[in-house]
Request: fold
Amino acid sequence: MKEHTKPNEPPVERPDEWWYRIYLAVIATTIVVIALLQGFTYYFSN
Reply:
């Protein structure tokens, strides 16, 4: 079910809990990517 807004109304704000999930997902993804890059660097440098 989509939320419709009139053209003169601001967009509907997301709840804070939804944004916390996004922040955690971004942080976790960043940590995983950095760990993988370090792992590849270590593997291929030897």
About this structure: The CA atoms of residues 13 and 19 lie 10 Å apart. The chain has a mean pLDDT of 85. The two ends are 54 Å apart (CA to CA).
